[in-house]
């Protein structure tokens, strides 16, 4: 199952999310739309995935992941196929809304719910790590692949190929490999969720991952632009920013390795703190190539840590019976932060400059770290 999910998550993020950026230039020409209008479509997809996440979570807890992820991968393939036929920006936005629903059904939130439900605590961390390490290379694989397809066949035919490839790969893998455990009584799940929503630690987790996710989203979108503003050539800036993907895998490996010695919350808090330090250092030493690389490396080590820390912390504290419902409740504000934070940061950069943006990123990471430390010092877990 882990091998299958590694493949479907890589293909899912590659086709349903990362490939969009490659299609912006040709769509801009054919649809006669600016980059900002087109980018708003993928932002809509992210927001929709967050809005439906609580519903998806409850479904996963009640019915398991096999049927949902199979249907979601079919819906995703059909949405990408429909994308190839759009003639207006309005049609593109409609398609991206459907892509958002499909993404919520098949990407990390759903996959993690399946993993958490199936594996015991001793094997869960390595299972999560295996999937995220492989899927961490989705952009590395699918950005050049999509560019190659667009170059050979044009953007519409490239989307048809991606749609067919995604559906033919992910539908059977989800149908055959995803396993469902017995479903706990509805009353038990509802009691766990209600208790969690009334207690302080849950909201500390929400604060930690909301602030850090917003910071990561800002850096992911604006880092290249800021490095160029610091005086670095575009090729160097893009290359250094590209380290974030590789370093996210490194950070996940380090975090998982340290979980056996120290609490997950404290290890993650240290990673978030390093990211805050990196955001402070970048304006101070980022004009030199070495300084820029050092700052980006520090930030990159925590770039993907939240992805594996959040399911581990939720499952450790609240058990697995209501994991997907709780994860879905967290996903709504966190996904909203991911979509909105870069837009707000771009406005801050325009009026106050990039150092102010880096200051805000540093504060957000620090708040995330402090929230996790407070979470770790709170009451013992409710479930095992």
| Poorly predicted parts | none
Mean pLDDT: 85
Which CATH architecture of the largest domain would you pick? Up-down Bundle
Give the distance, in angstroms, between the N- and C-terminal Cα atoms.
Answer: 23 Å
The number of helical segments is 18
- The helix-and-strand class reads mainly alpha
Strand content: under 5%
GO molecular function, one term: transmembrane transporter activity
Domain Major facilitator superfamily (MFS) profile: 1-380
Pfam families: MFS_1
Keywords: Membrane, Transmembrane, Transmembrane helix, Transport
Architecture overview:
The longest helix has 30 residues, at 200-229. The mean pLDDT is 85. By secondary structure, this protein is mostly helical. The chain folds into 2 domains: 2-177, MFS general substrate transporter like domains (Growth Hormone, Chain: A, Up-down Bundle); 186-376, MFS general substrate transporter like domains (Growth Hormone, Chain: A). Helix 2 packs across helix 3, helix 7 (121-135) packs antiparallel against helix 13 (243-258) and helix 17 (323-352) packs antiparallel against helix 18 (354-376). It has helices spanning 2-18, 20-31, 35-63, 66-83, 89-106, 108-118, 121-135, 138-153, 155-177, 186-198, 200-229, 234-241, 243-258, 264-285, 289-301, 305-318, 323-352, 354-376. The relative contact order is 0.15. Pfam families: MFS_1. Residues 1-380 form the Major facilitator superfamily (MFS) profile domain.
